[in-house]
């Protein structure tokens, strides 16, 4: 008998701050768009905090050593990334939400759900690993045709890294071909997650300015921005 996953919870968190996350394939423009949102909110005088995936100083060295020596199994890969996320969540994300900041996350737990399941981890298991994390108020999913995303990344990468190309999965001896297969699977995973978790989809095969205008309009409509103005005393 196959165990079915429980329906995705979409209950909002109860913290005074707001959490905005961006997800999508490499090359989708999500980081650029979040940077522009960050600058916009900062210049307008709102309380903003930024965090990005796989950036915990405590875990970073262990991750580098594991990757360099090819010691990471899909399970250890997942656990290390979750440890990184948990450290940032406990030290940065949660305190800022409690302090009433708008937290901008360049990738959130859905990155793990997309990548770790493609690497062979159970979706139920990954969901439980990250069950402590608050649901974002808005999750922007920057989607574009897979071929376009692949073209953008390959044009800007002189050499693909081993794990970036999914070489640890044995998909192909050729790094470029392995990368294409790997990204194709992640793309399918993101599409499924988008439907399950109700992501806000942004078509990213458009000019940067058009995308940013849409993103800002959505933020204005869903978040009471004046509440987050820095008060000068």
List the helices and strands and how they pair.
Layout (H helix, E strand, L loop, with lengths): L17 E7 L5 H14 L4 E5 L4 H12 L5 H25 L3 E5 L2 H10 L4 H7 L8 E6 L2 H11 L18 H23 L2 E4 L4 H15 L11
Parallel strand pairs: 1-3, 1-4, 2-3, 4-5
**Structural domain count:** 1
Identify the CATH class.
Alpha Beta
The CATH topology comes to: Rossmann fold
Secondary-structure element series:
EHEHHEHHEHHEH
Characterization of this structure:
With 233 residues, the chain is α/β, with parallel strands linked by helices. It has a single domain (18-225), classed as Rossmann fold (3-Layer(aba) Sandwich), CATH 3.40.50. Helices cover 50% and strands 12% of the residues. It contains 8 helices and 5 strands. Helix 1 crosses helix 8, helix 2 runs antiparallel to helix 3 (74-98) and helix 4 packs across helix 7. The longest helix is centred in the middle third of the chain and has 25 residues, at 74-98. It starts with 17 loop residues before the first strand and ends in an 11-residue tail after the last helix.
